[in-house]
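Hi R.,

Here's the input for the 2-acetamido-2-deoxy-beta-D-glucopyranose complex you asked about:
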Amino acid sequence: LRKDSGLRKSRSSTNKSTVAFFTLLFAALFIAFTVFAVLYLRSRTGFCNFAEEEESDKVKPLNCTVVPTPGRQGIWDHYRLPTSLVPINYQLVLWPRFHPESPESTFTGDVNITFQCKNATDVILLHSEQIEVTVVELVRFEIGTEAPQILEVWRSSLYSYLVINLNETLTENSIYVLRISFSGVIGNSTGGFNVDIYIKTVYFHSCFRSVITTQMEPTYARTVFPCFDEPSFKATFDIHLIYLPNYVALSNINNSFLGLGGGGGSHLKLF
Ligand SMILES: *[C@@H]1O[C@H](CO)[C@@H](O)[C@H](O)[C@H]1NC(C)=O
Ligand SMILES: *[C@@H]1O[C@H](CO)[C@@H](O)[C@H](O)[C@H]1NC(C)=O
Ligand SMILES: *[C@@H]1O[C@H](CO)[C@@H](O)[C@H](O)[C@H]1NC(C)=O
Ligand SMILES: *[C@@H]1O[C@H](CO)[C@@H](O)[C@H](O)[C@H]1NC(C)=O
Ligand SMILES: *[C@@H]1O[C@H](CO)[C@@H](O)[C@H](O)[C@H]1NC(C)=O
Ligand SMILES: *[C@@H]1O[C@H](CO)[C@@H](O)[C@H](O)[C@H]1NC(C)=O
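And here is the predicted structure with 2-acetamido-2-deoxy-beta-D-glucopyranose in place:
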């Protein structure tokens, strides 16, 4: 523009109309280009295509009953977890079955919770919210020794507990492993598994991309997997994530790629 005005100053007034004509022509072309660029971008902006995931692993039916709060009284009527059981380690496998275009995506998971019995009890309490528990199994860590039998698994919704009743008490100082399979809906709560959408643009190619994030604090871990969801119950975690090869899995802790995981050629990563 500076050049242009310089030119205009140096030329005679007869050339002014020519300059004005070209300026107008340029402006018209620029507007036309902008309109077309916007139309083009709009037509390009849609969800990126992702390979369809095979629904290979069907959720197994629960072997025990999960009944909603039957109004019974017991240790599940307390806001804080009893300290009779202490978790040591969680082996967690999470498989988000994510479909960017569908409003509801689900996830499935398995967790092995290794815990120690500090005080004999015949009730196991865990936090669990908005997830469906499909299989519950209790084994004793020491091989060759029997764990009590699970009589009932039910939900006490007042304090978001999953209650597991046993036929006899757990032995003090013994270590047990609780195996639980579960499923849930991604983005069904404000925490836990969240879905966010962003627009990725490379030159004029832009499309919606989705990202699933986890927000476990303060009490959303229970919406992702059954756990002792109180800060004092510290434990170690081995987290495996199963995801499609065209996704990227990131964590704020050290991780290693483990190659192919579950069905549909999914990848498996250990965090
Ligand atoms: C689970 O199912 C198996 C086989 O159907 C049965 O033998 C076992 O008693 C069941 N366990 C529970 C806790 O219901
Ligand atoms: C739980 O333990 C069993 C037996 O060791 C194993 O087969 C299974 O893969 C474990 N699950 C997880 C989630 O690590
Ligand atoms: C656990 O047992 C010890 C000793 O037997 C007892 O002092 C303590 O109060 C018990 N704790 C709970 C939570 O029952
Ligand atoms: C989603 O959350 C609502 C309430 O927050 C609950 O009623 C519903 O059962 C949840 N859906 C699933 C599939 O868990
Ligand atoms: C509880 O179940 C275990 C395992 O099935 C069995 O060995 C034990 O006898 C049962 N105990 C009672 C009190 O029924
Ligand atoms: C991360 O893990 C890899 C493989 O287990 C290991 O070689 C590396 O030293 C670790 N890095 C950190 C910062 O812990």
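One thing worth noting: Residues 63-64, 150 surround 2-acetamido-2-deoxy-beta-D-glucopyranose (ligand 1) (CB under 6 Å).

Cheers,
M.
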